[in-house]
UniProtKB/TrEMBL annotation:
Source taxon at top rank: Eukaryota
BP-aspect Gene Ontology terms: cardiac atrium morphogenesis; cardiac muscle tissue development; cardiac ventricle morphogenesis; locomotory behavior; skeletal muscle satellite cell differentiation
Single GO term (MF): zinc ion binding
Pfam families for this protein: LIM (PF00412)
Organism whose genome encodes this protein: Seriola lalandi dorsalis
Compartment annotation: Cytoplasm
Biological role: May have an involvement in muscle development or hypertrophy. Isoform 2 binds to RBP-J and plays a negative regulatory role in the RBP-J-mediated transcription in mammalian systems.
Annotated LIM zinc-binding domain residues: 54-115, 116-177, 178-235, 236-297
Record protein name field: Four and a half LIM domains protein 1
Length: 297
């Protein structure tokens, strides 16, 4: 494969006429106007763009008099169109290779097209040498490395992100979701609760460590509890019936007053059992009374 290098794009010489002179094609007077000298003919820029300009091999548009032009083997390009067909790197002042199919490529991409070249160092992978093949590409074993820690993958498992390759620990550190409880990466599986990811082994009762994946549970201050432990260790006790106020099942509404809590269905007059939720009441000792019964005490 032969590599070439341009000395730089060329521009057509344009001048301004000071004496009477006509465009070779449209016969317009070129006095005081820009013109191009093409094959010993004096041509106005409009006629040049329309009749004389070369066509860009990439974008198929004319290369005007005011554009910089590159050429190779009877083909022409705008300076901005002269790019690697693979990575689109500008090649106006870079070495390049011309493929048999007409494509222009930079040195690295051209090497990749030539047989079994290592995707890491771009050198040929010799037959019989230790190598890694992945998605129809090949690497020397020592070149097949994790993008993050730079260590060869060898016999380890690996994961990809786009075209990038990572060993499993680096991939987990960089991309895996973090468990809401232990803050460590979740490499597989896991449980989602309130839009937060958890390891299944972390999603257990905070008190008895019972797994909660398929059990009834509730949460309190970022911890989760099974129903029994929540009743025993966390839930407030009703000032009336002395049982836990859990919010489960019957009687989920709660009445709070001066640091005490009641099930709504327990917030009744001690004497006549009238429900006092959302009504006036009087507290006497540990008991509550409606105003009428309080007067009779």
């Amino acid at each position: 494969m032969t590599f070439y290098k341009h000395s730089g794009p060329r521009s057509y010489l344009t001048s301004t006429m000071t004496d009477r002179f006509d465009c070779y094609y449209c016969r317009d007077n070129l006095h005081g106007k820009k013109y191009v000298k093409k094959d010993d003919k004096h041509v106005c820029t409009k006629c040049f763009d329309k009749l004389c300009a070369n066509t860009c091999a990439e974008c198929r548009r004319p290369i005007g008099a005011d554009s910089k032009e590159l050429h190779h083997k009877n083909r022409y390009w705008h300076e901005d169109c002269f790019r690697c067909a693979k990575c689109y790197k500008p090649l106006a002042s870079e070495p390049f290779s011309a493929r048999d199919d007409g494509k222009i490529m930079c040195g690295k991409c051209g090497s990749r097209e030539d047989g079994n070249r290592c995707q890491g160092c771009y050198k040929v992978v010799m037959p019989g040498s230790k190598n890694v093949e992945y998605k129809n590409k090949v690497w020397h074993e020592e070149c097949f490395t994790c993008l993050d820690c730079k260590q060869p993958i060898r016999t380890q498992s690996f994961l990809t992100k786009g075209e990038d390759i990572y060993c499993a620990p680096c991939h987990d550190k960089k991309f895996a979701k973090k468990c809401f409880h232990c803050k460590q990466p979740i490499s597989s599986g896991g449980i989602s609760y309130q839009d937060q990811p958890w390891h299944s082994e972390c999603f257990v009762c905070n008190t008895c460590r019972k797994p909660l994946a398929e059990a009834r549970f509730t949460s309190h201050e970022n911890n989760v509890y099974c129903v029994d432990c929540y009743k025993t260790d966390v839930a407030k006790k009703c000032h009336g019936c002395k049982n836990p106020i859990t919010g489960f099942g019957h009687g989920t509404n709660v009445v709070n007053y001066e640091g005490y809590s009641w099930h709504e269905y327990c917030f009744n007059c001690k004497k006549c059992s009238l429900s006092l939720a959302n009504k006036r009441f009087i507290i006497n000792g540990d008991h509550i009374y409606c105003p009428d019964c309080a007067k009779k005490l």
